[in-house]
């Protein structure tokens, strides 16, 4: 499973002009289930993200987790994280999980973050979404359970 995590001062996701999810201080998590991923990868990734210390402490060092700072998570499905750009100029996405399985694991992943105590907002799997954010720092972290 892959994720791109951004520390944000605010983020939102909109579909057809309606805001589906909005957070203030916290994490925007773009997530992609890959072929052969299972709940185990979602468990590993969600636990790592929930504990990731990328928020500043009193001394200005990145030493606090999203839970430590009372932040929330906006989780958005992002199959393009599976892009293979090794051939030609058009990316291929065959490494991404099939849509039904991708949706199931996306939902499971977001549910796991909530079970770990985070306030979680979500996008809509498979929708044409507009994501707005103010990246704080900027801090952007790439994570992959295969590496």
The CATH class designation is Alpha Beta
Average pLDDT confidence is 97
Count of spatially separate domains:
1
Low-confidence stretches: none
Element order: H for helix, E for strand: EEEHEEEHEE
The total count of strands amounts to 8
SS field, number of helical segments: 2
Shape: globular
Q: Rg to the nearest angstrom?
A: 15 Å
Binned, the helix content reads 10-25%
Q: What is the name of the CATH superfamily? A: D-tyrosyl-tRNA(Tyr) deacylase
* Relative strand content: 35-45%
Query: Alpha-carbon distance between the termini?
Result: 10 Å
- As for the CATH topology, it is D-tyrosyl-trna(Tyr) Deacylase, Chain: A
In CATH terms, what is the architecture? 3-Layer(bba) Sandwich
Comma- or semicolon-separated keywords:
147 residues; two-stranded antiparallel sheet; D-tyrosyl-trna(Tyr) Deacylase, Chain: A; alpha/beta; single chain; 6-stranded mixed β-sheet
């Amino acid at each position: 499973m892959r994720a791109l995590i951004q520390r944000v001062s605010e983020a939102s996701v909109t579909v057809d002009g309606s805001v589906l999810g909005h957070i203030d201080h916290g994490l925007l998590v773009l997530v992609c289930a890959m072929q052969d991923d299972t709940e185990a990868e979602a468990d590993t990734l969600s636990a790592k993200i929930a504990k990731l210390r990328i928020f500043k402490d009193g001394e200005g060092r990145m030493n606090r987790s999203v839970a430590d700072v009372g932040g929330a998570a906006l989780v958005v499905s992002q199959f393009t994280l599976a892009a293979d750009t090794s051939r030609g100029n058009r990316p291929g996405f065959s490494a991404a999980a099939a849509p039904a399985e991708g949706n199931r694991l996306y939902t499971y992943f977001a549910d796991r973050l909530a079970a770990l105590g985070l306030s979680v907002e979500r996008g809509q799997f498979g929708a044409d979404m507009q994501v707005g954010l103010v990246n704080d720092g900027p801090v952007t972290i790439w994570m992959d359970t295969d590496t």
